[in-house]
Structures are given as structure tokens and as C-alpha cells.
Amino acid sequence: MSTKSSADWDMQVLEREWQTLMDELAAATSLSPLRVRAQAEIESIVGETFKAWPGLNGDGRVAAWAKLMTTATQSSQSMLPSCVSCGECCRVSSPTLHPDDLDLVREQKLPWNRLYTLRRGEAARSVSGAAPFVLDREQVKIRENSESHHCEFLTEERCCSVHIDRPLQCRAQACWDPAQARELIGQPRLTREDIFGEVPALLEIIRAHEARCPFPKLHVACEKVATAQGDEQMAAAVNEVVEVVAFEEVFRTEAAQRLDIPDDVLDLIFGRSFVELVRLFGFRVDKGADGSRTLVPRDAK
Ligand code: SF4
User: Fold this and answer.
1) What is the pTM of this model?
2) How far is CA 136 from CA 120, 142, 211, 233, 292, in A?
3) Is 166 in the pocket of ligand 1 (CB under 6 A)?
4) I need a labelling partner for 288 at 20 to 30 A (CA). Which of 155, 171, 175, 268 fits?
């Protein structure tokens, strides 16, 4: 909290104090700061006060801040039984698609290049924020921002850019009533077979990729590097990872060229590349000018 009286706050300080208040109210309740803020800002007095602030005199600001605190405190007492577009659930993870979403995918309302496949054996995070778990079957998901993991359809204004056509999981996700989302747990998920069932050439190449480049193959190879004893074992283990990564890269590149698959849908068709996934195990594969590949620690210069 600012030590200065609210009479002296400019807009920057007001914004900072408002956020501090949201954090304090969130800590005192079971709501997240985003939810507390979004709920409070539904009250028209909040927007009006922020707008009027530069024109208020000292006494006016003190009175206005007191009203803002009362409004926010009352609003945080309980969770409204509706979506207030706080964006909280869209930040934890992106939705996994279900068979109900197939028409949205077919009609390109959820375009292929905004989706990716998590393959069997990969780790997934649940929207509840619980610990990651290993997938025993594949999932098709909306892409996430690589840094923040926010759903790619979440805009900077906390809006969903596909709101009308959002997937089933998002429609079921009601933070004020988790039972709705819980009902989806264990329900069948959309698969690549569902999406590409009518394109035999694609299905065939997806199956061939699964058979020759399954994710557990990369996992096992990386584990060997982590547990190798002595130079000889280490060299063999490193070589195996490099070969597994290189093979997968060549497979997807050749398949993409042969079937004319655009680069930006490869992560849906084949899942994320081993070149990308090897980073999950703390490594990176660098390619030399002569085409040779070297396994290095992920963050090596
Ligand atoms: S699709 Fe829309 S509602 Fe669903 S997680 Fe993404 S931004 Fe949120």
C-alpha cells in the first residue's frame, strides 16, 4: 500500500493500489486475483471512478477510493454463479477436444493450424492445475503460448477469440460449479483418427509415424543418457538420442513434402517434433553446417 494519501495518487498509483487491493482480497477469500478483479469491475462504479479520477480533487479522491474499497470487498465475498471473463481457466492450460468438437474442426472454426496433438506417453496438465500426468492415449488440444501456456485464443483483453465456437470443455468449464467440468473427465477425447478418418493417405502416414517414431522411444533414449555410466555408455546413449531425433525429423519432413502438408499443421498431424520435445528432457540437438547433429544441454550457448 502507498504511504501517500489517496488524495495524492495519480492514475499509475491508483492502478497499482487497485491491484494490491485485489491481491489482498484474493488472499482473504478462496477466489483468484483475476476473478476478484473481474467480479469487482463488473460494478459500473469502478469504471466510472477510474475515468473520473484525474478530474477529482483531494477530498473527492479519498471518498472515491473508500467507495472502491467497499465495492471490491463486498463483491469478493462470494463467487458470482456466472463467467465474468476473468480468463483464469484459459491461462492454466488450453482445452482438450472431444468428439462433440469435431464439427468445429471440420468447419475450420477451430483451424488445424491452431491445434496440436499430445501423443501417448507425453505429459499433460489438467485444467484443474493438478500435477501433470502421462497420457495413455492421445489428445488433440488447442495450441498454447509457449512461454505462458495460456490458450492461444485468449486475447490480451482477456476475451476468447472463438467464444461462439469454443470447444465443449470451455463451455463446461464453470469455475463456480466444478461438477460440470468433472463430468467430462473420462469422456472420450477427439483423436486424429476422428479428424482425418476420411483421408486415408494421412491416416496411413500418421500410423506409420506412430509405429516408427513413438514418443516413448525418445523418452527411453533420453533416460539412457541420464543414467549412463562411463564414457562408452554415455557416447552410445547420446548417439541413440541423436539418431532418434534425426530419424523423426527426416520422417516428418519427407512426409510433409510427399503429401504437401503445410508446416503449421505438422504438430496436429504428427504431434510436436522430437527436435522440440527433446528439450523437455533438458537437451537440444544442434545441426552443423555439414548436416551433423550434436546433443547439447538445452540451455548451452
Ligand atoms: S478456447 Fe476460449 S474459452 Fe477456451 S480456453 Fe481458449 S480462450 Fe478460453
Assistant:
1) 0.84
2) 5, 19, 16, 30, 34
3) yes
4) 268
